Amino acid sequence: MTMILSAHIGDCIVIAADKRSMICDIQSGALQLHSDQEQKIKLWPRGAIAITGEKIFSNRIEQHFINHQQGLLKLLDLIDDELNKRMVEGVPIENLKHSTIVYSYFDGNQTRLFSISTAPFFEVIQKNGNNIIQPYVHEIKENFVNVNCFNIPADISSLQNFQKKIKPLQSFTQDLDCINYYITLLKPVFVNHASIDPSITTCFDLYIQSCETGKNIALHVPNLASSTTTTKELNYFKTLKKNQQLTQHFKLNSN
Asked: What pTM was computed for the model?
């Protein structure tokens, strides 16, 4: 399923995502484990993108980012088109409606951080006698942390510790010190989440981007703590109660 932790720390943004990917078996409609070594954070000319959910849908959205070097016009329309394509190809709505797209964007002056939930694309409302949908782009503002995953654990001490100890890029004399610092902070977060959610891995991809210059670094972080053994099928939606959310958003104000 993937857990994505994204944070705007003032002078830089941080994105971390685990390595597990899932793909939909069209004949059965079931989500199946595809890989535990997926590159979950992809680079595009303005920043990076990470997506929770079904692999083929994610790959297609990521490719739109990679191909559009000057930014993405009509981004919500592109997402809507790709969701409809996957449904026509036989993917059940429940496998698509709980994804989250997280991406950074350097506009030449500053790096900004955004997220888009696919849920509103499936929520039809009445307005002026017409059926419409109202998807939107959410900006993750400075001093906020966003977590997208299937389960928020009862013990959120690792998230609270991350929140309390985040530091701006300017606090470090060398970039390597910053990288090692955030690796150390994030490792227990992924270990803790993997222990209660078999849809994520303890190892993760990490991306850090300067807000001032757009300079960035992306790397894979091995995290050798053992995680919960998972079966090939990861079909959480089969056990969901009506209106229960598959992906939760947990925001922490770091002030």
From this structure: 0.88
